Amino acid sequence: MTGAPLRWERREPPLEPVAALALGTAVPALAAATRSRLAAGHRLAVAADGTALLVLGEAPDLPWADGARYLGEDDGVLVPTTARPQPGAALWRVALGAADGQLCVLVPGHALVGDRPAPVRGPADLDRFMEPASGEPGSGEPGSEERAIGEPGIGEPGGGVARSGGERVREQGGPGRWSGTTRSGAEA
Asked: Model pTM?
């Protein structure tokens, strides 16, 4: 699939949500909403790095937050509930190098691959994500990286044309940390 452009088409009917994703400035709002859901007894798993927060759970348990994207599963890839990647999701999973059992997330402008997180133990585990981090995407600060590449709103067909992007490997590991590969763009 080298050089194959990623295109998005509208999906009808939408997929059942199984995850919520926040990037950059949307992370604190999703973290706060997730913390509230955990305090209310909902069972959720969380994966995160400095610029992304992924919350996994059953549709009724997922938190709602401004700026979050809701994802469903398409051939082993988490994609926006109202959008379908072309070429198909299974091909993108292979092209992104996701191993069996790993999470693979594909949204316009972003691809994430990493290990599936364990459920969060308690609401306090989300405290570190509640305040805006320095080094947000596009801030120009050390540790920041511009990660939005021609990114339309969630589920907008025709958006998110794949382009070559930088690749970085996260080795932070530990509970609640995203451990895997984060790619900007999605040209495989």
From this structure: 0.71
